[in-house]
Design goal:
Largest sheet: 5 strands, mixed
Number of helices: 5
Mean pLDDT: 94
Structural class: alpha/beta
Distance between the termini: 35 Å
Radius of gyration: 14 Å
Number of strands: 5
Strand order of the largest sheet: 2-1-3-4-5
Low-confidence stretches: none
Helix content: 40-55%
Shape: globular
Length: 148
C-alpha cells in the first residue's frame, strides 16, 4: 500500500457519503493520474433509475471525457467496494492500470473475492484490496442496517 492510497481512498469515501445522503448504496470512486484527481463519482442507480449508474462506471465515463479517449492508461481507480463483474469489465476495457478498493464484496466481488477478472488475458490491472477497509465496510453496513 502506498501513502497516497489512504489519501485518495478518503476522497472515495467522501463520494460514498454523498451517495448515502441521497439514500443510495454508499459506494464512491476516484480516478487519479499523475497525482491529479481526474474524475469523482458515486452510485446513483436509484435516482437515475439506471443499472449502469455504479460509481466506477460513472467515474470512467467522466475520466474518458476529461482525457479525450477511452484508454485510461496511467490511471488508478480508488473505489470503496470491490468492483462487481460489470465494473471490473469496464475497468479492464478502459485499461485502468491499478485498482485500489476498500471493502471486499462477498456477494459480487470480481477482483478475487467471488470471481477474478484479472484472469482476463488482454489486460491485467494491478489490484490492491483492503485499503481503509473498516471505514468502507462500516459505511455499507450502517446503510443496510438502517434499511432493515
Amino acid at each position: 500500500m502506498m501513502a497516497d492510497d489512504i489519501k485518495y481512498m478518503a476522497l472515495a469515501i467522501n463520494e460514498a457519503k454523498k451517495a448515502q445522503r441521497r439514500d443510495e448504496v454508499p459506494v464512491g470512486a476516484i480516478i487519479v493520474r499523475d497525482g491529479e484527481v481526474i474524475a469523482k463519482a458515486y452510485n446513483t442507480r436509484e435516482h437515475g433509475k439506471n443499472a449502469l449508474h455504479h460509481a466506477e462506471i460513472k467515474a470512467i465515463d467522466k475520466a474518458c471525457k476529461r482525457l479525450g479517449g477511452w484508454r485510461l492508461v496511467g490511471c488508478t481507480m480508488y473505489v470503496t467496494l470491490e468492483p462487481c463483474p460489470m465494473c471490473a469489465g469496464a475497468i479492464v476495457n478502459a485499461r485502468i492500470e491499478r485498482v485500489v478498493y476498500g471493502a471486499h464484496d462477498h456477494k459480487a466481488g470480481a477482483f478475487g473475492t467471488m470471481i477474478n477478472l484479472t484472469d482476463y488475458p488482454l489486460f491485467k490491472p494491478q489490484i490492491e484490496g483492503g485499503v481503509l477497509e473498516t471505514e468502507c465496510a462500516q459505511l455499507l453496513s450502517s446503510f443496510f442496517k438502517a434499511k432493515r
